[in-house]
Design goal:
Strand order of the largest sheet of chain A: 1-2
Number of strands of chain A: 2
Distance between the termini of chain A: 26 Å
Radius of gyration of chain A: 18 Å
Strand content of chain A: under 5%
Number of helices of chain A: 7
Largest interface: A-B, 26 and 26 residues
Oligomer: homodimer
Order of helices and strands of chain A: HEEHHHHHH
Helix content of chain A: 40-55%
Chain lengths: 203, 203
């Protein structure tokens, strides 16, 4: 929304409380949910991201041809699906979610798997960025947002081996410099600070 | 593709063999992949479904306004995400996948969870269809395709309690009558036949 210069207020929703008024807005009872002026309600991360590009096309974040949009969406699936399954859940869910939900000790096998898998994904980012300005092509797109969102969660733990993956690091430094992303990097988990370099674009 | 009257040939890809030529088309090494005349390659189920609607908009399967598309996509996420997690994996993965991959006995707790959860989803379909012609509104959409795809997998096992959910059953009978869907219902797993009523629109 910041990339599109849209004004918005954030509201916290404790989805686990299953508040009746919230369930009436979104029967799936999850976030994000967007309430538009005039009370149109848009639910679901995928539907919402696509909706914003449909409704507020300046600048377009999915691309301007069917083929360009397919490439952006392929990479969004890559990061929201494959990266999430192979890296994020193994590291972030084990180290942070389990701690906050008091679900016992992190599983060291899962953490090892996540720490191994992340190299392959950083190589893939490096391979893409060697030929392209941004991940899905020469324009900044939702693929960059999706990849950076996942990486920033892992980076909050200090678990991204940036030094071994310079092209990916250079791309991520450009992401960190974007005003839209800087706001997000200011978000902290109370009682669990990120590494010092976390929000620094010159890391 | 049949709904859009697009001609195509199907090719089988044994993704677990990780064939090099296939990996070059799709580094994620999963299906579906579409090869267009002229060799444009479109990968990933989500990107591919959206691409077909972008490129061949007659008839539109995602709707004609940003709001209508958001509703279709919300429901696609509902079925591909929530239904898949709460029902399909618990029933289809346990009963079929485990058998074919020789992964041991089905987990009876998972099967019980799937059999309970499906009622809630059939009620939700009934609730939607009470007010609408099709799941996402008055036009047939990709939400119907997504819901029917998941339900047909569970129905192949004979595990959909249709008699307790008449409105959902009436909607599914209409789905079964569509020529595009009839072809799919002809697909069988060798050595594992579906119930007799499976492909019958008057079930």
């Amino acid at each position: 929304m910041s990339e599109k210069k849209l004004q918005f207020d954030m509201r916290l929703e404790k989805v686990w409380e299953r508040r009746e008024d919230f369930m009436a807005m979104n029967p799936a009872c999850d976030v994000p949910v967007l309430e538009e002026p005039g009370h149109t309600i848009i639910c679901d991360a995928y539907a919402l991201a696509e909706y914003l590009d449909d409704k507020y096309p300046e600048p377009q974040l999915y691309g301007d041809t069917a083929e360009a949009r397919a490439e952006v969406r392929r990479l969004v699936s890559w990061f929201d699906g494959k990266f999430h399954r192979e890296v994020t859940t193994n590291l972030v869910d084990e180290k942070i979610l389990k701690r906050f939900l008091k679900m016992g000790e992190p599983n060291s096998e899962a953490i090892r798997a996540g720490s191994t898998n992340i190299h392959y994904h950083l190589d893939y980012i490096g391979w893409l960025i060697e030929e392209r300005q941004w991940l899905a092509g020469d324009r900044f797109s939702y693929a960059d947002i999706s990849a950076a969102a996942h990486l920033s969660c892992v980076d909050y733990l200090g678990d991204v081996p940036w030094e071994e993956h310079r092209p990916a690091k250079e791309w991520y430094a450009r992401m960190k410099s974007r005003p839209s992303f800087r706001e997000i990097l200011g978000d902290h988990i109370p009682g669990y600070p990120p590494p010092e370099y976390y929000a620094d674009p010159d890391f």
